[in-house]
Amino acid sequence: xxxxQWNRGKRxxxxxxxxxxxxxxxxxxxxxxxxAQRGDARAYELLLRELRxxxxxxxxxxxANDAAVEDIVQTVLLSLHRARHSYRSxxxxxxxxxxxxxxxxxxxxxxxxxxxxxxxxxPDENALPDGFLAPTSSESRTGRDQVGLSRDLxxxxxxxxxxxxxxxxxxxxEGLSVIEAAVRAHxxxxxxxxxxxxxxxxxxxLLEEEVPS
Amino acid sequence: xxxxATDQLIAALAQDARPVAPVHxxxxxxxxxAAVTSALSFALLxxxxxxxxxxxxxxxxxPFALVAFGLALAGFGAVTAALAFARPGQERTGWRAxxxxxxxxxxxxxxxxLVLLRSPLGSEAVWGGLLELPCVLVSIALSVPATxxxxxxxxxxxxxxxxxxxxxxxxxATALGTFAAHLTCRTPGAWHxxxxxxxxxxxxxxxxxxxxxxxxxxxARSA
Lengths: 213, 223
Prior knowledge:
The structure holds two protein chains of two kinds.
Chain A: H1 3-37, H2 41-60, H3 66-82, H4 93-115, H5 137-140, H6 151-158, H7 162-173, H8 178-185, H9 189-210
Helix pairs in contact in A: 1-2, 2-3, 3-4, 6-9, 7-8, 7-9, 8-9
Chain B: H1 3-15, H2 26-48, H3 64-85, H4 91-118, H5 132-156, H6 162-184, H7 190-198, H8 200-222
């Protein structure tokens, strides 16, 4: 057997084994997803952990920035979580997954293109507006009245868009972590942080209007 | 965002893994829309009767059956596309359905236009909108329930392309509403069919797309 024949044979064998591996992976993912739809947390976690490197590879082909890749992976995982009822086990899993991933990637690229040129630095994450006292952890789950928000602040908070109100309430009044709050609000942790930043900035402006120095 | 945050996110999502009921199949949903629109069409036929003087099939002053076929094809095509685009991984079905929609519109516009071109000059009365407007309004009014229903079904899935879904849902629903109106329309002539019946699906698509998009987004958020 000459070297060309040997190489051709090796390539054919590796293609066959890749196909078999793909089919095996597809079956495994489909089964885990079907189990996740029935509420099996263990299968769901296994699935998400196994999807992660594939998603990272897929996104890294389009985006070079590691932080952005991780952010998009999180967005895809959240979208998958929200859309998990739309998977039907008689259909293949991977086209469903890649459609969600492609959509998240397109959204990210569109938003980035829109932001370019009109980006303005966000205030520091910890720069809460004056008068806004984040409750301590013991106070955190007791509700907004009991943590003693000033009337001005409550009024200002009520004038924010619902999504920003929700972000502030989840993070600072319910005392959830960014991840927990993001899961609750069905957005990526990055998007939740952006909402909170925007809320802080709006609150600051509103409070300055209401309490002239 | 760090890798540790992704780990935390995976753990949080796994904890949140409540049982969910998978969505109905695409065929089931299209059949449900067909049932709703057929019920509306039959109700309208009962009320107004079939267009006199009976079915003019492929020949006659207007190609009645061909236009009806085109409208039905465009309607079901657009509705199927809207519902397919609301399901990740069914884009291929969605694009096939878009092709059927375009074909349906071409059939209805083309058939009526050919008749119009072949008719002697000046034989077609131009009604100046007096007869067209009620027909357009009836078609759009008939399409509202189907638009709401298709939007509801799409929002219950996972509309990852909300704009396309909203436009196709309203376009398809208007084509189906126009189909019902076409079956009972008493205004004669190819001119009326071209300007009103064949063009209404696109007009309705643009008019109803904005409310449909709002509804889709608000329902998808609250789901």
